[in-house]
Amino acid sequence: MCATRQTFTKSIQNTTSSDEELMEKRLELLETKIASLENESKTQPVLFYAIVNSRSFTLNTDSTIVFETVVINEGYHYNKYDGVFLAPQDGIYMFSWTVSSVNANCIMTELVVEENVISSTGEKEVDNGVYSSASMTAICRMKKDEHAFVRTTGHTGSNYIYSQDNVQRTSFLGILIKAG
């Protein structure tokens, strides 16, 4: 008796309709997941609050203030190493900052978005032995990937920042108010 051997082969060219249906379903699931992730990134809160922590220093004119201690940074769009906020999407943003000084020193600052000065604040001619602070809140429209930061102005030669736990803090915050 001779044994017969049967061989079954299938070419990669010959896909069955069930294989195609399975691939289409998997593709639809992937597309749905991608759309969900894109929507989720648009609805994530965008806000940060950072401070200068217990130190004092002098900055020259047009120097970016680095608020190195991050209290909250939802979305991680504020960079504590360079002091710059990067807008994750088009929208209307609100920024607020406080700068503090002491004695007869002065501090003059401005909020800058892509080299456009939005607003400014500061303290000049403070009495000796006095702690002083100046604050400002500004609202502006930003486009995705634009930068916002607080810097010293050209109104004085040097700007003295004094930020302490038990007196006053120098701080910066930003929040996306309305997307789009």
Please render the helix and strand layout as text.
Blueprint: H1 17-43, E1 47-52, E2 55-60, E3 69-74, E4 78-79, E5 84-86, E6 91-102, E7 107-113, E8 116-123, E9 131-142, E10 147-152, E11 158-163, E12 170-179
Antiparallel strand pairs: 1-3, 1-12, 2-11, 4-5, 5-10, 6-9, 6-12, 7-8, 7-10
Domain C1q: 41-180
GO cellular component, one term: extracellular space
Protein name: C1q domain-containing protein
Write a concise keyword list for the protein shown above.
180 residues, alpha+beta, Jelly Rolls, 5-stranded antiparallel β-sheet, 12 strands, elongated
Q: What does this entry look like structurally?
A:
This protein is of the alpha+beta class. The chain has a single domain (45-179), classed as Sandwich (Jelly Rolls), CATH 2.60.120.40. The chain has one helix at 17-43; strands at residues 47-52, 55-60, 69-74, 78-79, 84-86, 91-102, 107-113, 116-123, 131-142, 147-152, 158-163, 170-179. The chain has a 5-stranded antiparallel β-sheet, with no helix packed on it. The longest helix is centred in the N-terminal third of the chain and has 27 residues, at 17-43. The protein is elongated, with a radius of gyration of 28 Å. The model has no long low-confidence stretch (mean pLDDT 85).
